[in-house]
Amino acid sequence: MPLCLVLALAAWLAGEAVSTAQPESTRSGASTEAHRVAEQPALVLPAPPPTGSPLTSEPPSATAGLSSTAAMVSKEWAASAAAATGIPLRALLGYAGAELRLAREQPGCGLGWATLAALGSIESDHGRNRGSAIDAGGTTVPGVFGPVLDGTTYAAFRDTDTGTLDGNPRWDRAVGPLQFIPATWAIWGADGNADGVADPQQIDDAALAAGRYLCDTGDLSTASSWRLAIYSYNHVDSYVDLVAATANSYTERMP
């Protein structure tokens, strides 16, 4: 299994999608989320830089990288954005905080919060799938889990974490609001809330990890590189279009 084998498997949310093109990618794929969409979807440009980029609540400093990503976001901005977009406030703090952290870590990436929010919406309804919710601390309660990957319906992924993350000691399954599989979390796992633990069920951790994964593609300010990054998350063109449309819908609602 390639090391960069990927994050999400949320096909359990809907039916299968049909890919209409195969752009080259040196990466092995991410989500296998399979929303049923048009068989020949029109290409959609990636989300533009948000008109309401998250405002930071703290000035840059030498130790800023050690703080919680959510604490970096202006609470006034977040409350306004949550009301405008319908994204749960605690989830939005995770997405926006990841953008601000990545802007410092990788200023050449250009990843916006709306892209992460679109992924969170598609993968788990912002942590609300199957009755779960993100609590005040940013953790999904109860935890969000995808189907067991035993080869019955989806590709088989034998256990890589002794069931520590996904509760299954025999087969892996995707976990958390961004639907990481344990093998991928072992590579990309992040500690966005600065509690010393990288937890895929915690939105700050998951959003920062997903952002770093996407930024590994390079500069996401161009349509081609943005699409390549999302395609690496899930090798289905209609999925890329859905992420773009969802991200654009969020930015268009911003005041």
Automatic annotation (TrEMBL):
Signal peptide: 1-21
Species this protein is from: Cryobacterium gelidum
Region (Disordered): 44-65
Domain of life: Bacteria
Ranges of compositional bias, category Polar residues: 53-65
Keyword Signal applies: yes
Keywords noted in UniProt: Signal
A biological process from GO: peptidoglycan catabolic process
Cross-referenced PANTHER family: LYTIC MUREIN TRANSGLYCOSYLASE, MEMBRANE-BOUND LYTIC MUREIN TRANSGLYCOSYLASE B
Any one GO MF annotation of this record: peptidoglycan lytic transglycosylase activity
Protein name: Murein transglycosylase
